[in-house]
Amino acid sequence: MFKGRKLLIATKHKKERVIAPILESELGVECFTLDDFDTDELGTFSGEVERLDDALTTARKKCTRAMALANCDMAVASEGSFGPHPSLFFASANEELLIFIDQKNNLEVIAKSLSTETNFAGAEVKTKSELFDFAQHALFPSHGLILKNDADNFTDSQKGITDIESLNATFHSFLEQYGKVYVETDMRAMYNPRRMKVIQDTTIKLSEKLKSACPQCNCPGFSVTRVVPGLPCNLCNFPTRSTLSFMSSCQRCGFESMQKFPHGKQTEDPMHCDLCNP
Q1: pTM for the whole thing?
Q2: 3-state DSSP call for residue 65?
Q3: What is the average pLDDT across 211-219?
Q4: Are strands 6-9 and 74-84 parallel, antiparallel or unpaired?
Q5: Is the CB of residue 7 less than 8 Å from the CB of residue 23?
Q6: Is 6 helix (H, G, I), strand (E, B) or coil?
Q7: Burial class (CB in 10 A: 0-12, 13-18, 19+), 31
């Protein structure tokens, strides 16, 4: 279905460096990008342009707009989100979403990853010592930094700082003009190897989904769509919140299959039972 076809990677931040090798090898496609496609119009991490839509809608718009510009029928795009981890206190997280759209075959496949391997952070600094402490924790200079005159209501900013000379010069210039400086990690993929690694991992997930065909109609993208809780407690046999089964489904014909005990265990420890350990 995909072999020999052109696949547009809708990015301006060099994500093709990790996406293209995987999808070309696994799917047999020929990847390309557009030099004049500006994904920043749909939102920026640094705040100049607010992202108005959720991650999935934004990634889908990247694909459809890029395909219209390039007059092609197959594209992939990613969208990242950063903030507190949904379940781990005091931990930051990077959620990465990739969407693959094949208009010729009316196909849309999505893959997601959630990782704590991120340097996402920001702080107001007034001394060079504070700046360098932040830079060290942010993995500078392998990971880029952004300096602003203010966290939110900024009128001046410098992105993509990856050397000590530029960091020093920009800091002193901002401090002299504004009396304070706000520093944050540059989360654009080309300036953030940790984020690029999450995108790479998500691309592997996407390729695995695309190679998984529906047993009934052979449509690609047959994958887990629902997690069913209820693994029984091995003491009282009461259903717990732990996973009992995975439900996989086909987006084209609706065929479903169930995989029981996907984690290799048929009962759960009583410590995870709401009856035995309320």
Answers
A1: 0.90
A2: helix
A3: 95
A4: parallel
A5: yes
A6: strand
A7: middle
- Cis check for the bond before 270: say yes or no (omega within 30 of 0): no
Token pair recorded at residue 235? 């003491």
Two structure tokens written together for 103: 């208009």
**Cα 18 from Cα 87, distance rounded (Å):** 28
Residues 6 or more apart whose Cβ sits within 8 Å of residue 21: none
Run of H or E residues at 158: strand 157-161
| Residue 59 CB neighbours (<10 A) | 26
Tokens at residue 188, please? 């654009």
Backbone angles phi, psi at 163, to 5 degrees: -140, 150
- CA distance linking residue 186 with residue 260, whole number of Å: 43
Cis peptide before 141 (omega within 30 of 0): yes
Q: What is the pLDDT of residues 169-211, one digit of tens each?
A: 999 999 999 999 999 999 999 999 999 999 999 999 999 999 9
Which residue is associated with the tokens 């009282």? 236
Token pair 């790479």 in the structure block, residue: 200
Question: The tokens of 3 are what?
Answer: 């072999």
The secondary structure of 223-268 as a DSSP string is EEEEEEE-PBBTTT--B-SSEEEEEEE-TTT--EEEEESTTS-SSB
Q: What's the N-to-C CA distance of the chain in angstroms?
A: 51
- What are the structure tokens assigned to 12, written together? 């301006």
Q: Comparing 40 with 236, which gets the higher pLDDT?
A: 236
pLDDT tens by residue, 87-110: 887 889 999 999 999 999 999 999
